[in-house]
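Quick one: structure for this chain?
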Amino acid sequence: MQEIFFVPYLTQADLLLLHHPGENDVKAYKVMEKAVKQGKVRSIGLSNWYIEELQEFLPQVTITPALVQNEIHPYYQENDVIPYIQSLGIVVQGWYPFGGRGYTKEMLSNKTIAKIAKAHKKSVAQVILRWNLQKGVVVIPGSSNPDHIQENTEIYDFKLSSKEMKHRIEVTRGGSVAVESVSISER
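Got it. Here's what it folds into:
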């Protein structure tokens, strides 16, 4: 924890995440809770935690995580995890909203998503971000391209229909094809 505040001008961190369940998580999280109580950290959360881990972990800590950050995108939908985390009053943040780990190019050229994008006169990236938004997932897409950054903000002037949110998306991974069904309750 001390290393975080080695930066001379940093007096308080906005958010500190405990990454991926492992040994001594409760002990590490309690150190983070102490930092919140001392005013060194504003909020704490978790990254890459799922239902079983949360059910075991949460009763052992005092401060409910402000946020759980998990990989969420049309190829990795987390349809059970998202509502569970949200039912606890915890914000869900999706990292890798465009697929990451080698799937970005594939996802951004997905024919099903492209068809939906064309119907809304939007880009595939905008449809993916809107899909997350309608699931109640906060996304922070990364880009150094000013045009992409601007485009990523232009997702509030359209809404995906229930049918589009539930549309079956063909997913090709390593030569095999799987069909995943997107299913959410509209907000």
